[in-house]
Amino acid sequence: MSNQSSEEDLPPFPEPEISSLILENKPNAKLHYTYYPASTSQPHHPNPFAQSLIVFLNGLLSPRSSWDASINDFLEKRISSRLPYPALLSYDRYGQGDSDHDPDDPDPPPSHSHDAMSAVRSLKQFLLQIWKEHLDMSNPSQFPSLILVCNSIGCALARLFSQTYPGTVSGLLFLDSVIANSDLVSIWPDPSSPSFDPLTLPPGTTTDDVLATRAAYLQTFHPDVPNDEGLSRRNLATLLPSPSSPSLEGPDSQPPYLTVAGHDWATFADQCLTGSLRTPRALTMTYMNPAWQRYNEGLVGITHPQRAIGPIIAVGCGHFVQKDGPGFVADEMVSLLDRMVNRVEQMAEHDANERASESNPSLHSSLS
């Protein structure tokens, strides 16, 4: 009976707002989004995330709906534990999902009409308008403290956003980031190279397998390949030449909290074999997986070591982690928030002790 009463006392599940808006600097084109309000502050228990916003940044092939299961899992975990949570926002970039194409794009899709920096600038304007519309005027803030949850090229956009607008991003969750400084073709051995030795290939694979794999990646993933979003990747390696730099700056000149997660090697290799690429499993395990792991290891360097976790493995998940493992994403979001709020509480306790010691010299003496 007490359990039933306890469940009935739980806060209600938030009702999402599913809507669209037009950017002030890009008329006649709608961006569609889903917005969940932050949990309500209670007497003596203010929501430490009242001025925070979790933003989900999609990959090229994943619209905002790909985050729905992860968002539901996350909210259920926070609500059932009676823990506060920030507002949450997923959206379709221009040319994705329900959103219109970028009105500034000169060419119809598939195309290279705008680059990652254009997407970043549009995101900043989008967030300004969203936050203004949903701002709690009793506790105003010019711009929210952002927590970016990202997959694939969304991780590159998150890095560029954090670099371009320092002081805005307090937390980052990277889910199998794109290898931004690679064309993904050169990761594989090149049979046309004078140094190529077919005897070094993993057992059960052939030179023809390597040629077919390189051709498939060239046709599908090379930066010169246009996409229906119109988001060009041609200059991505120039924008982000290193996985580990530059270092990012969060609010109050502090480095952001960061979790870097990579795909499960075996799951990814299986999906590459059975999917359209038809890449032999041994090739993926020998060349692509180690290269991706090295890149993820570099990503940890964009923040202070004490604020970084990873790279960890999303067990059972391929590249689209939120699709294969929404529970994993929710758990890592919870973990990231807990790290952030614990730091907030520690700083508040530290400030309280400092004030007490200033007003009571004998207390300062005992503490030291």
UniProtKB/TrEMBL annotation:
Residue ranges of every copy of the AB hydrolase-1 domain listed in the record? 54-331
Domain of life, per lineage:
Eukaryota
Biased composition, class Basic and acidic residues, residue ranges? 348-357
Q: Which Pfam families does the record match to this protein?
A: Abhydrolase_6 (PF12697)
Annotated region Disordered: the residues are 94-115, 348-368
Q: Where does the record place Low complexity bias?
A: 358-368
Q: Which protein, by its recorded name, is this?
A: AB hydrolase-1 domain-containing protein
